[in-house]
Every structure is written in structure tokens, then in C-alpha cells.
Amino acid sequence: MNEKWAVITGASSGLGTIFAEQLARRGLSLILTGRDETRLNEVKKRIGPTTPVELVIGDLGTDAGVEDLIARLDGRVVDVLVNNAGFGTYGPFAEIEADREHNLVGVNVDALVRLTHAVLPGMLARGRGGILNIASTIAFQPGSYQATYGASKAFVLSLSQALWAETRGTGVTVTALCPGPTETGFVGALGSDVSHTAIYKRLAAPEPVVAAGLRGLDRGRAVVVPGWRLRIMATDRKSTRLNSSH
What is the pLDDT of residues 169-201, one digit of tens each? Predict the structure, then answer.
């Protein structure tokens, strides 16, 4: 229980798997969560036997899934929390299955808030730690046909920026990582064909996204937008949103 732990949600694929590998190289013990036990075991094998790895199988869209994970964190020294679990939907809001949207909010928003509540007090008491919340460039402006997903990521961005301000000078950092479309399996899980959309025609490699997120967390950045093109786009979107509010 004296080990330093990194907790990574959605660790069975995509960015979560790469975060697990990178944090293992930093010497942290790992708690990996996800719904797919087979894939999580594959990640554990890939990391190797020298790093302590515990798996928590469950759905963070349910109370039971979140409560089980929080119970497993009791007494641990959690140095890093990566709130990576999440998914999206695509299509007219009125036509998307309501239960799927409800589950999206549960995973993308509610689970993230509850897990952050579970680890932040301990980090503050120790005077060290980092929370990396995976948002998205869609967080900077509402996205038609991804209304709920975009709103969930706007919540993540806003919460992260507020907590970054609250924790300044404490030794704890809260960072929002805002990637664009990335090769993670996210697009395939949308449940709709988005090949006709300009934004999903080009997908970024995931490794630089993870590297940028961890680098930003190390440097105490509030927001990280990987890639100069995306940074320009995010800045333009933020400016448009601010101007339209006046």
C-alpha cells in the first residue's frame, strides 16, 4: 500500500493503453479499468511482470462500476489519475437513443467527477499529484450532431480549468487534454458512418497525444491541445464563442 499508483480509466484500448505503458515506464504501479477483461489482461501482459498492475472490470456508466473502482482505491497513494474513459454518439439529437446518451453522460461526466472527488483530497494532503482529464477540441464550441458528446467535453474542460485554478501552488495539477480525432477506436464506436464528415477524414496518431498530455501535466498546464493546427482551431473557436456571447 506504500506504492505510488496511477489510475487509468478506459485502459483496454486506444489512449488508455498508451497511458498505461508510459506511466509504467515512470515506475508507477497501475490500476487499470475497463469493461473488456480480455483486452485489459493483454495490456497487463504487454506491460510485463516488473510493474504491479491491478485490473478493475466494470462499466463506469453505472453506479456499481464507479463505486467498485473507488472502493479499490481506498488506502492507496494515488499519484496520477487519468480520466480517459469516454465515448461519443453521432446524429440528430432527437433521433439518438436516449439511454445511450444517458450512459454517455454517466461515463464522460459523472464518473469523472466522482473519481476526481475520490483522489483529490489525498493529493492535496500529500502536496503532490496530477489529474489528467481527457476532453476534446469539440469542447471549445458546440458540435451539431454530437450535441451531448460536445457538451460533456465542454464540462470536462470547464471543470478542469476551475480545478487547476483552485489547486495552484499546492503541488497538485489538474490538466485537460483536448485532442482532435485520433486513431483510438472512438470513430468506430460512434454507431454511425461519419466518413462523409471533414473532421473525421484524418485521424491523428495516438502516441504524440499521450506524450503531449503527460508533458502538460508535468509542466502544470491547465489545457493541452496537441498539434499546432488544432491549437489554432481551438483558439479560433474560443474567440468565436466569446464574441457571440456579447
Answer: 999 999 999 998 755 554 445 555 545 554 555
**pLDDT tens, residue by residue, 69-123:** 999 999 999 999 999 999 988 899 999 999 999 999 999 999 999 999 999 999 9
Task: Quote the pLDDT of residue 182.
Answer: 56
Cα gap 88→210, rounded to integer Å: 19
Identify residue 112 by its one-letter amino acid code.
L
Catalytic: 90? no
Choosing from 90, 145, 149, 200, the catalytic residue is 149
HSE, side-chain direction, 13 A CA sphere, residue 208: 12
